[in-house]
Amino acid sequence: MRAVLRAVPVLVVFWLVLSGHFEVLFLILGAASVLLVCLLWRRAGVVERDGVTLPLVLRLLRYLPWLGVEVLVSAFAVARKVWAPRPALRPVVDSTPSSGLSVFSQVVYANSITFTPGTLSLDVDDDSIKVHSLDESGVEGLRAGAMLRQVRRLEPRR
């Protein structure tokens, strides 16, 4: 229960930053949204396992801008490939390693792959993620490991 209470201020600030409105209706809707998220977290059992901590939030705030840049770079690359006079797309399904990640980090990694244009996470195993890509370069980029290194930085320091 303490983890839920620690998450409430983070969620409230997140809501206020995203909405930018301070009218009564928006504040009531924000409070209802925060309550709903806390109830869902508790019901899913996430709070007991992982919890939201300030260090995790700070690491996520460092990761999200990096991911945003990667998404933009990939979006331009995909647009260039698709709009080429003769698109040379050769879809491929392959695996990229993900061993040693916590469940939370695996979810972040798989979602980051899917969020990046041109790639899609199909299946998550303990040591790899099966990925569909528009061409081999998407999987090769993941195997290079930049995204995996960034996701590993989200892991708590031991």
Strand-helix topology:
Layout: H1 2-19, H2 24-44, H3 46-49, H4 54-82, E1 92-97, H5 103-115, E2 119-124, E3 128-133, H6 136-144, H7 146-152
Helix pairs in contact: 1-2, 5-7
Description:
This protein has 158 residues and is mainly α. It contains seven helices and three strands; from the N terminus they run H-H-H-H-E-H-E-E-H-H. The protein has helices at residues 2-19, 24-44, 46-49, 54-82, 103-115, 136-144, 146-152; strands spanning 92-97, 119-124, 128-133. Strands 1-3-2 form a three-stranded antiparallel beta sheet. Helix 1 packs antiparallel against helix 2 (24-44) and helix 5 runs antiparallel to helix 7 (146-152). The mean pLDDT is 87.
The biggest sheet, with number of strands, parallel, antiparallel or mixed sense and barrel status, is:
3 strands, antiparallel
- Helical proportion? 55-70%
Structural class: mainly alpha
Strand segment tally: 3
Overall pLDDT level: 87
Number of helices: 7
Order of helices and strands: HHHHEHEEHH
Q: Strands of the biggest beta sheet: in what spatial order?
A: 1-3-2
Shape: globular
Alpha-carbon distance between the termini? Answer: 24 Å
Strand content: 5-15%
- Low-pLDDT parts are none
Return Rg in Å. 19 Å
